[in-house]
Amino acid sequence: MSVEAGQRRRLEPDARREQILSVAVRLFGERGYADVSTTDVARAAGVARGLVNHYFGTKKDLYLDVIRVMLTVPEVAIAGLPDGDLPTRIDAIVSWFLDVVSRHSRSWLAAITAGGMGGDADIDRVIAEAIDAAADSVLTAVGLTGSGPAQHAMARSYVGLAVSTAREWLQRGVLTRAQVHRLLAATLLTMVEQVFTDA
Amino acid sequence: MSVEAGQRRRLEPDARREQILSVAVRLFGERGYADVSTTDVARAAGVARGLVNHYFGTKKDLYLDVIRVMLTVPEVAIAGLPDGDLPTRIDAIVSWFLDVVSRHSRSWLAAITAGGMGGDADIDRVIAEAIDAAADSVLTAVGLTGSGPAQHAMARSYVGLAVSTAREWLQRGVLTRAQVHRLLAATLLTMVEQVFTDA
DNA sequence: TCGCTTGTTGACACCGTGCCAACAAGGCGA
DNA sequence: TCGCCTTGTTGGCACGGTGTCAACAAGCGA
């Protein structure tokens, strides 16, 4: 233990909250939602269990903040994409996506898939927002900024393809990065040229 | 109550098990995994709660059987796909997929997305098997029966695209069936002609 | 009608969660 | 330095859900 256990110490609310949150991110990233109890989080943080509820309310509320952290991605360098022709821009956005998802693959890829188990409404909403953000990045990268809801929906579908393909690469290890890149670039080019136009 | 409540009746083990399972499928389809207790299942089935554990063991085991039922799809008429050129066969497999997923959309689409929440290993395995089956259907439909693990992985990725796109159609209602069909057909054609070949 | 097989029940103990009053750490004024 | 007061922190309480198991009874055969 790096911190002095067994001694009661007061922390600023923001510091304590962030400390518990970081511990929760680690635990929920390692194990599943059901396998991590609030007692585990409290013990790993060296804190009474009641304090977790005091700062985060419900366990589900804590989990919501956790996946919010996991899905928070450095939005930098999106606007700095090249202005070449369409295949060049597509290559850039695909490379950027693969860089991001491979950097913190375990947390991001796990969180983006955390929808299920019957699908809690709040969790689905947070994940949907992350997918929306990624879809917006795709649309802006291919130069379809002012686009209708159908294009947004198709972009979200493409993000679903990107996620499932990245999982075959990073989690299953059966695809190489080059294969994933080629698949995502070719399909995105097809979608932009042949499918996005009809809406 | 159609069945006589308050009266104790003996059923054959298979019949009782199937009755409880059908009730559980309905409840888990309506509400989420966490929102359905084994008490709810037992009460809806007019049965003591202990009997649910007697037949299915753990609540998670029951849920595994539930999603197994939800993901069970009439595999008929897959072999009866036409032998035309590639676009024709792709149209056929896409139409077949959209028919299947729209027929029992709520259960199948909900179950195929039930992976997350940190990802229970057993549940992930059942879902992965369903995705594998769908991917095999795609590969046979496009005439790539004897294909390597890379092609299988890409087919699974395509199933991920199909699932996310179908969700935009059936759950969000922002895409029409024609749009979904065009998107899935065009992308599958691109993948077969340009991406599957390099592996 | 009796007895036996076994489908079925109810209760028990355990665990995780949310809540709350009580406690004390640590800064402030005297 | 001492006492007080704010408030971060704790431990215990009650509740609901789960898994298990001995006891019960439904229904068939003798």
Key descriptive features of the protein:
homodimer; 199 residues; mainly alpha; Arc Repressor Mutant, subunit A; 2 domains; 9 helices; DNA-binding
Question: Can you tell me about this structure?
Answer:
2 copies of one chain form a homodimer. With 199 residues, chain A is mainly alpha-helical. The first copy, chain A, has 2 domains: 13-66, Orthogonal Bundle (Arc Repressor Mutant, subunit A); 72-198, no CATH class. Chain A is built from 9 helices and no strands. Chain A has helices spanning 13-30, 38-45, 49-56, 59-71, 86-103, 105-112, 121-141, 149-170, 177-195. In chain A, helix 7 (121-141) packs across helix 8. Chain A is elongated. The mean pLDDT of chain A is 89. Chains A and B meet through helix 8 and helix 9 of A and helix 8 and helix 9 of B.
Mean pLDDT across all amino acids of chain A: 89
The poorly predicted ranges of chain A are none
Query: How many separate domains make up the residues of chain A?
Result: 2
Beta content of chain A comes to under 5%
Helix content of chain A: 55-70%
Helices and strands of chain A: which structural class?
A: mainly alpha
Along the chain, the helix and strand elements of chain A come as HHHHHHHHH
Summarize the main sheet of chain A: none
Gyration radius of chain A, rounded: 20 Å
Number of strands of chain A: 0
Biggest interface goes to:
A-B, 47 and 48 residues
Count of helical regions of chain A: 9
Q: What assembly state would you assign to the polypeptide chains in this entry?
A: homodimer
Q: Between the first and last Cα atoms of chain A, what is the distance in angstroms? A: 59 Å
Q: What shape does the CA trace of chain A take?
A: elongated
